[in-house]
Known about the structure:
By secondary structure, this protein is an alpha/beta fold. The protein has one domain: NADP-dependent oxidoreductase domain (TIM Barrel). The protein has helices at residues 3-10, 14-18, 20-24, 66-69, 72-84, 99-105, 134-152, 170-173, 175-186, 200-206, 230-242, 262-270, 285-297; strands at 39-41, 48-50, 52-55, 89-91, 115-120, 157-165, 190-197, 214-218, 246-250, 277-280. The strands form two sheets. The chain has an eight-stranded parallel barrel, surrounded by five helices. A hairpin with a 6-residue loop joins strand 1 (39-41) and strand 2 (48-50). Helix 7 crosses helix 9 (175-186) and helix 10 (200-206) packs parallel to helix 11 (230-242). The longest helix has 19 residues, at 134-152. The radius of gyration is 18 Å and the shape is globular.
Amino acid sequence: MSQMQRRKFLSTFAGAAATAPFIAKAKTKTRGNLPQIPQVALGNTGITTSRMAQGTGFKGTRRQSDQTRAGFEDFVELMRHGYERGIRFFDLADQYGSHYYFREALRHLPREDITILTKMNYRFDDADTTALTPAQQRHSARKAIDRFRLELDIDVLDVVLMHCVVTPEWDSELAGYIEVLQEYKERGVIKALGMSAHDLRALDRATELDWVQIAFTRINPFGTAMDGTPEEVIPVQRKFKERGASVVGMKIFGAGKHVDQCSDCMKFAQNLGYLDAMTIGARSPKEVDHNIRLMDKYPAA
Length: 301
């Protein structure tokens, strides 16, 4: 992928380019000291990163989220703030539309220090994936991965997940996509693979798949926006650890529904004993700082 191709592709997005003068004005505020965020190894991937990830998909759908709706300048400042506070793990997705925004943040962040995770939405443009042949799935996957790299202006994607799998047969139903993901991993274009589940049966099936190195899975003490009750979900999540895969918790605050009980949520997550990391979609620098203090207040078991 040549620099000329990138420039030609990106130059068509005048709206993004027009934001450059505003991004240049983003200032780094003077900030007080915060506790250090632990660094963790993500299972057998060879990736070491921060235990807390900065999510970019709060209310994320149709290539928008609260983080992107805030605009380029605020988005970039939020990512810079997280980095300055010790966050090295950034959680993106095609569905959130956060690639272009994070490309601008990468103008201010050292690429070699951070882990970029993104997710492939197999239900692209609301298409009926059951009607796609394996060849069509492979074509769609190749187009998507190459597009992600262009949108981010990077050559290597650290982690790519199949986004929001929901059936117990998802790996056979999405075999064409998975084949291409594994092909790109073998070529060194992707470092690690995984999935995010929105169904307990789909999550349980993922525990049996050796190629799933990272599981993004929903967990909080209230069962809010989860695949089942904590009592049902926890034993399944533990299976990933038993075979050496990494578990990253999401919906830690119940998709924002339990922010008034965030201390209970963080304590619960930190005491599980098997979460390698967690992603939280902070929407302001203040929220980032608050979450870091919470993580320090309740050390991981």
